[in-house]
Structures are given as C-alpha cells and as structure tokens.
Amino acid sequence: MDTAVAKTRSSWWNGGRSPFNVSYGKLMMWYFLMSDSFTFGAFLISYGTIRFSLNSWVDHNYVFNKFPFTGEANLPLAFVSLMTFILIFSSVTMVLAVHEGHRMNRKGVEKWMILTILGGLAFLSCQAWEWTHLITSRHEVLVDGAIQYWGTTTSHNPWGPQVLYNGHLVATPGPVAFGGYFFGITGFHGFHVFSGVVINVIMLIKTSRGDFDKRGHYEMIEKAGLYWHFVDLVWVFVFLCFYLI
Amino acid sequence: MSAITTTHEAGAGHGAAQVKRIWKAFWILLVITIIELILGLTIYFIDKQANPSETMIHFLKGVIIILSLAKAFYIISIFMHMGDEIRNFIMSVAIPATLFIWFIFAFLFDGNSFKNLRNTDAGSHPAIENVQPHTVPVIKEGEKN
Which is nearest to A131 in space by CA: A172, A190, A88, A197? Predict the structure, then answer.
C-alpha cells in the first residue's frame, strides 16, 4: 500500500513522460517569456530608479491628454484607455481561438485569430498616432532666457517645471531621460506587439491551410497565444508606470 | 506527446463552461481597468487643487499598483492557463519571478540615494546648484528636432 502511494507520488519523475505535464515547446515558450519579463522588468526598474533620483519628473496627465480628431481638447487618460481596452479585447479573442483549437474547430480558430490580428493592428495604429503627436506637436519652453518650441523626443523634453516669464507661466526643459524611457519602453513593447501580429498571421495561414488538422492538434495556436497574452501582461505594467502613477 | 494530458480543459470541460470562464476573466479585467482609470482621474483632480494631499495621492497610487497586480494574476492564471498547470511547473516559473521583489526595492532605494547625493554635497559630485547647465541647440517654431 505504502509503496503504491510512493510510486504514484513520484511518477512524474520516473521517466517516460513530461514531469511538468507540458510539451517541450510550451515549456520553452514559458521560459522564454520569463526571460523576456526580466528584460522588460529591467527597463521599467531602471526607469523607476532614474525617476526616483530626479527632483522633478513630467506630469503624465498633461503629456498624454490628447485624442485623435478632438483638436486641443484636454482629455487625460482617454486615448491610453482606448489602447488598453483594444489590447484586453484582443487578448480575449486570442484565448477563444486557443479554446476553439482544443475543440479542433478550424473555422472557429480562423474567426478569432482574424479578430486578434485586427486588435493588434488597431493597437499599433494607436501607438503610431501617439508617437507622431508627441514628436511633431510643439510646446513653448523657456531655454536660456528665450522662448523655443519643442516636441517631445529622446533629446528634448518640454514638460519641465513652469516659471513666470513676461507675466505668464512657461515650462522649462524637463529631464531628457523621459523621452528615452518612454519611446524606448513603449517602442520595445510595440515591437513585441508587431512580432506578435506577424506570428498570428503565420498561424492563421497555417490554420487555413489545414496544417494543424493534419498534425492532429492545435498546440501552435496555444504557443502563439502565450506570447500574445504576455504582450498584454507587459502592457498592464507599461500602462501603470507611464500613464497612471 | 501522448503522455501529456490537456489539464486546461479537464477541469472546465470542452464546452460552454470554459468559454464562460474566459468571458468572466475578460469582464473582471475590464472592470479593474475602469476602476484604475477612475482612480487615475481622481489623482488628476486632486493634483489640480491648490493644496494637493500628497498622502492621498500616494495611497491612490498604491491601490492602482495592487489592482495592476490583480490584473496580471488574472491574465497569467486564466488567459495563459497557468492556473491549470501542475504545481511543480507553476513553481518553476513563479519562484524565479520573486527576484523582482528584491529588484524593485533595491533599485528604487538606490534611486532615492542618488537623489539625496544630487541635492547635497554628500556625494563625490558637486551639488546641483554648482553644475553649469549645458547649452541646448536653438529651435524655432515649425522646425524639426
């Protein structure tokens, strides 16, 4: 009796089966994502360190307060919440594609994969608009006693502390690190979204060719799904660190 | 391959129950995000007042961080099916991730220390007042940076 129990308990490690009950590919995808999370974590923690080390930072509610087609309206958090909803929604369509894959339903996988790809493209378009807006819009900055007009780039930050100049408040140059961290980290995340879209397109093509039906399982959709959810997971923290706190 | 049981579906079955679970996780994520946005806007309006309460802002930011961790948990556990894997595997991912706790505390304290050194003469660098501001190139309206 005792030996029987011991045998059942240690059977995961007795050989002949995966001790983690996952396939090699999925296990390695998880470990890749773990290493990738350390890359993103290192970027975000470095951003936090620099932000803690400076006496002033930018006020995100004034930097990110524009929405397409609304002109100069002051709408803090509006556009980034749209981007967040798009990404959450594309995450749920992805997990539904994985679910249809478990049921070996090719049509269902195709439908949800197309919606996921559209969500990814919508997110990338939003990011393109936001970057363009930040880089090309001009803001008054008081530099060395004269007014200049700056965009937000990796070398210019027009969002520093405000001072009185000729009777009205004008911003002074803010920490240059802001542009570098913002464009660096959202760019690295955007690149992950882009490669996720490419992977999803490949998976959609393979699905519609019937490759996974021939193989007998849709595990590739699951692995692409893990990557896609990870992109959403990283966005939770990018959203937190740049737009909320 | 044949030895691997698809534990994901075993608990909830292949049908409507699993789909229901997915949509439930979606609504939870959506509601948490909306609460975060409301708190974010609350911070914005507190900040606009004449005497913003620093303590209140720090408290709200703390709540937002906890809500974000809850979102991360739902994404990993439900969407990535980690909650349905076996314990050994979960631990092989979760234990290395606890390094982040040390990471965050160590580096934020370091940043705070940089700030103290920057603002006093305690460090090897002169205090900020003595540093010459570097000249920046002149940019007129309409020019590219």
Answer: A190
Q: Where are the domains of chain A?
A: 27-244
Residue pair A123/A79 in contact by the 8 Å Cβ criterion: no
3-class state of residue A71 by DSSP? coil
- CA dihedral over B52, B55, B61, B64, signed as positive or negative: negative
- Which 8-state DSSP code applies to residue B126? P
- CA A106, CA A224: separation in Å to the nearest integer? 16
Q: Can you tell me the ipTM of this complex?
A: 0.88
**A241: how many CB neighbours lie within 10 A of its CB?**
21
pLDDT (tens digit, 9 = 90+) per residue, A206-241?
Answer: 999 999 999 999 999 999 999 999 999 999 999 999
pLDDT of A7 over the 70 cut: no
- Structure tokens, B123: 């460090």
Nearest alpha-carbon partner for A100 in A91, A112, A109: A109
Closest CA to A82 of A96, A69, A95, A97: A69
CB atoms B136 and A229 under 8 Å: no
Q: Which residues contact A95 (CB under 8 A, 6 or more apart)?
A: A225, A229, B22, B78, B79
Which tokens hold the place of A144?
């060395």
Instruction: Determine the residue among B79, B84, B131 to mutate to test chain A binding: the one whose Cβ has the most chain A Cβ atoms within 10 Å.
Output: B79
Question: Is the four-CA dihedral A23, B8, A115, A125 of positive or negative sign?
Answer: negative
Best mutation target among B21, B57, B89 (most A Cβ atoms within 10 Å) is B89
Q: What is the pTM of this model?
A: 0.87
Nearest chain B alpha carbon to A51: B111
CATH number of A27-244: 1.20.120.80
SS3 content of chain B, % helix, strand, coil (to 5): 70, 0, 30
A225: Cα separation from own chain's centroid: 14
Distance CA A178, CA A9 (A): 53
* DSSP structural state of residue A58: -
Please give the DSSP secondary-structure letter assigned to residue B85.
S
**For chain B, domain boundaries:** 7-86, 98-130
| Residues 6 or more apart in contact with residue B94 via CB below 8 angstroms | none
